[in-house]
Amino acid sequence: MRTVIRGLGELCITGGLVLLLFVTYELWGTGRYTQQQQDALGQEMIKEWKAPKVTTEKVKLGKGLAMIRIPRFGPKYRFVVIEGVELADLRKGPGHYPGSALPGQVGNFVVSGHRTTYSAPFNRAGELRRGDKILIDTREKQYVYQVTDRRVVRPSTVEVTAPVPFKPRARPTERLITLTTCHPKYSAAQRLIIFGELTGELPRAAAPASGK
Amino acid sequence: MYAWLWRVLPGGWPLKAVLALVLAAALAAVLWYLVFPWLEPKVQFDHGVVNGTPSAPSSPG
User: CA of A50 to nearest chain B CA: how many angstroms apart?
Assistant: First the structure.
């Protein structure tokens, strides 16, 4: 009897340690993976940007599309936006919904990202206020978007990704950006949506260093 | 369980201790590199995508 109880106790302690290790993996280990991928994809993208432009350029799924920077999150905040929003894409960094507008285009440039795991690119998305800048670097231009609105919606609210958010049928005339991430933190119950609109564009060379 | 493990490990206590540490490290490595990556997508609590499926907006300009 005693051995059984002791065995059970030891099992519980072991299970607890394994759980602790798993939480460490989720919150920190996954971030290391993202960081590696970000470094590799970022270098690849910068190299491609330096190379002469191919006329039929289209970013492949899982590859770097643009660089996102948000001054409110500090000068070091910078992520390569991946083309695609599959699980595997979002592990590498924030992902652009294929089919939604490209940076600077008329329509809606929709980017989704993790909030707590995999380097948590949109961890602080809830801190964004109206007027905050979201900078998107592409091969030639830096697009400056400014936050216009913030919403918490149900996970099924695909209308936010429409060219005109909430009006799936409408014809887009504005150049918008939409960031989606999970809400509340550590949960998948809702989605936090940040809306923004294009307010300016600069040649990328003149934009503050966008290295890496 | 642990008492039994300690008993079956060979050698004096220093060797036992080293072996126990190696075993623990090996177990942790298996969990970290094999089990957790497999488990992670199954318990994912951090979904950022609306509806999981991207909508196909009517061709933006």
Answer: 26
